[in-house]
Design a protein that fits this description.
By secondary structure, the protein is mainly beta. 12% of the residues lie in helices and 39% in strands.
Length: 737
Amino acid sequence: MKTTKRGTRRAGLVAVALSCLTITGCGGDRDDGTQVEDPVPTTVEISPESATLTSINATQGFTAVVRDQNGRAMPNASVSWSSSDAAVFSVNGSGSNATVTAAANGTGMLTATSGQASGTASVEVGQTPAKLEMVSGDEQEAVRGTALAERLVVRIEDQGGTAIEGVAVTFLPDEGHGSVSETMVETDADGMASTEWTLGIDSRMQSLVAFSGDATARFSATATADPPIPDLVLSSLSFSRSEATIYETVEIEAVITNGGDGTGPATFPVRVTVEGQSVESVDVEALQPGGSTTLTLAVGPFAEGRYQMALAVDPDGEIEEWDENNNSGAGLIVVVGQQVISLGESLELSSASAGQIMLFRVEIDEASDEALNAELSGGDGDADLFVHFADRPDNQYRYGCVSLAPATDEQCQVVPTRKGVYHVAVHAFSAFGPTTLTVTVGGKPVEDYNIDLVFVDGGTTAQDDIVREAFERWESVIAKGASDIDFSATPSPPCGPGSSVATDIVDDLRIYVTIDSIDGAGGSGGNSVAESSICLLRAYGTTPRIWEETITGYIHLDEHDVGQMEPDVLRSVVLHEMAHVLGFDPVVWDVHGHLKDPSLPRNPEADTHFGGYLSIAAFDAAGGTGYEGAKVPVENGAVLGSSDSHWRQSVFGDELMTPSITGTSQPLSLITIELLADLGYGVDLSQAESFSLSDVGSAGTAMPRGPVIDLSNDMGQGPIGLYDMKTGNVRIIYGSR
C-alpha cells in the first residue's frame, strides 16, 4: 500500500510539469507564493522613426526593439517586417533588423510585428538630381544668328544612375551667346530634357549652361560667318618695366591672335598711344584663323611723370570682326629722373627722408681691365650704394655691386670696366647728407678673390695638388672679392659628405673636397665620377629673391675614377665641378631670370637656353651670330642630370661645361666666364681660353671626340641655404632638389 501511494503522487507531479511545458505563458510562484506573469510582446519600437531615400535602389537599415508588458526588452522575440506599398519600397528583414530598398518615388509605412504588437516608421522615396549628363548637341557649328541643326539634350539621374522624371532643367546661354527655344524644361519619363539653341552674332566660340540644382553641364558651339571674318584679339600685353628713367625706352610685348574664321585684309594696323597720343604704329601681316603673332615695340624715352600706355589692334575699327571689344589693352608707366655723372666728377648728395632712391648714369666710351670705382664719402646718416652695367635692374639689390656699410662711406667696384652705360643708385637706408659721390676708372686696389680649400678626405699628394691647381685657376678668373661672412655667432650648416659647420670667417668662398668612393669605377650607365653642389649663397631678403655669390659648396670625387684619370683630365673635371659651385647651376640661373624654356621635368622638346646679356654677346663673338636657335643653348631633352645644367654638347663640343669631358683639351671659354659675370661676379676676361664655335659646328652637329668622361650626373641633390646679408640669418630653401 505504501508503494502504491508513492507511485500515484509522482505520476501527478509529472503530469503537471508536462502541462507547463506545452502551454505558453505559464506563470510561476515567487518565493512568497504569489503568481509570476510571463512576458508578452506589448510594444515595438522602430529606429529610425523615418527615412528619406534620394535615389532608386538606395537602401536604409532599420532596427526593431520589442518590449513586454513591463517595458522590458525582449531581444529574442520573433519579428516580422512588411511594406505598405511594395511599389515604393521593398523590405528584407531578419529578426530585429531589416533593410529597405527604394523602388519608386512615393511614401509608405514600414511595419514591424511581434505577436499582437507592432510599430511603424515612415519611408519616403524622392529622387534628387545628382548628375546632369549631356546626351547630344554639344560642339556643333552653325552660321551666327541661326539655330543649331541638333537640339541640346540632357539626362537627369539620381545618385544611383536612375533617370528622374518631372525635374525642371534650365538652359541658359552665356551673355551675347544667343537664345534658346525653351529656357526651362521638365524631364520626361526617360529623364530627358531638350531645347533648341540659336547662336548669337558677336562671338566665335559660344557656350551655354544647363543646370538643375547643383548638377550642371556646359555646351559649346562654334559660330561661323558668311562670308568668313577675322576676330583680332589682343591676348596679352606686357611692359619691360613699370618704372623707367628719362633715358630709358619701354619695350612692349603684345600677343595677337585671330579667333575668327576668316583672315581679313592682307595687313592690319597696330597703334601704341601714350596719354591718348599716338607714338608708334605698325602694320602686321594677316593671321590665319587660329593663328597668333608676338609683336615687340620699343617706345620712349619720356619726361618724368605718370603715363597711361595703351596698345590697340585695328584702332579705327575699319576691319569687320566678330568682337570689337577685345582689341586693346593698357598699363601705367612711371618715369623718374636720372642724373648723368661724368668720370671724375663729384656730386654732393643729401636725402630728404629714409627710403629715397637717387639714380645716376655713367657712360663709358672706352673699356678697361681695371675696375670702375663708385664712392660715397663724408656726411651723416646711412646711405647705401649700388652699381650695375647695361640694363638697369628693377630692384637696387639686383645690381651687380652692392655696398651696405652702416654709414655714408661706401665703395662699389665693378671689374672689368666695360664700354657702355653703368647705373648707380644711392638708397637712403636712413636720412643722410651731405655726402659726395664720385665715379672713376682704375687707380684703386681691388680685393682679390679667395677660395678656401678644405680637404675633408684627400687623395694622393699628386691628386690633391691637381685640385689645388684647379682652385688657383678659378681664383685667377674671378677678379674681385666678395663680402666676408662671419659665422662665429651663428655657425653655417654642414656642407657635403663628412663636413662640419663653419664657425669662423669665410673669405670669399669655401669648398669642401672629398676624394673617396662614390660608386666605384665608371662614369656611365648611371655611375658618378664626381658630384658638386652649392650649399650656401649670399642673399638680400626673401621677396623678391635676390641671390649673389656662393659662400660654401662641396666637391665629391670618386677615388676609383680619379685614380684612372690623366692629370689634365682630372684638372678639367675639378674645374667643371668648381664652376657648378660658383653658380653654373639652374637653381641660381632661374632666380636671376636667365634660365629660359627649361626642359625638365617633362618638356623634352624645349629649346633650353641661358639668356644673360654678356653670355649672349660672348657666344656671338665665338661664332654664334648665325646660330638659329635660342641663345645661349643649354643641354635639353629633359634628361635628369644633364639637361638644364650644362652647355649643349652638340653645339659646344669639347668646351669645359658640357655634360661630358671629351677631346684632348676642354677650354674654359669666354662664354662660361661671362655667364658668371651675368650672375654678378667680377671677372678677368683675359683668362678665357681660345674657343670657337666654328671648330665644333655652330649649327649643332658636334660629336664627342676621344675618351669620354660622363659628368651628366654631377649635380648634387643636397640642401641649399641662403645667408641674409641684412640680418645674418641662415635659411634652408631647398631641402633637396
